[in-house]
């Protein structure tokens, strides 16, 4: 069984957003998750924790995700 994949992803620098599609009785709904990529011991890892300097990009990603979702519901 394959894992469900996001329907859309957006990346700005080392911060990514993933948009997930969920079919409900009321129609299609979308959820968004955010991750920050970082390197530790020469390996790439990710976290859902953000520092002060990440918040500007996080806000931009949230805005872009909202715009993408809005476009799907036209």
Structural write-up:
- The protein has 74 residues and is of the alpha+beta class.
- It has one domain.
- It has 1 helix and 4 strands; from the N terminus they run E-E-E-E-H.
- The chain has one helix at 55-72; strands spanning 8-12, 15-24, 27-40, 43-47.
- It has a 4-stranded antiparallel β-sheet with strand order 1-2-3-4, with helices on one face.
- It starts with 7 loop residues before the first strand and ends with a helix.
- The relative contact order is 0.21.
Q: Short description, anyone?
A:
The protein is 24% helix and 46% strand.
Structural class: alpha+beta
> How much of the polypeptide forms β-strand, as a percent range?
over 45%
Mean pLDDT: 94
| Gyration radius, rounded | 14 Å
Number of strands: 4
Looking at how many chains there are and whether they match, the oligomeric state comes to single chain
- Give unreliable regions as ranges: none
- The SSE string, one letter per element, is EEEEH
First and last CA, distance? 32 Å
Number of domains: 1
- So how many helices? 1
Largest sheet: 4 strands, antiparallel
Shape, principal axes of CA atoms = globular
Q: Summarize the amount of helix as a percent range.
A: 10-25%
């Amino acid at each position: 069984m394959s894992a469900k994949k996001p329907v859309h992803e957006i990346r700005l620098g080392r911060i990514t957003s993933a948009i997930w599609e969920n079919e409900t009785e009321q129609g299609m709904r979308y959820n968004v998750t955010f991750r920050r990529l970082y390197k530790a011991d020469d390996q790439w890892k990710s976290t859902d924790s953000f520092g002060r300097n990440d918040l500007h990009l996080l806000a931009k990603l949230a805005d872009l995700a909202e715009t993408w979702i809005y476009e799907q519901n036209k």
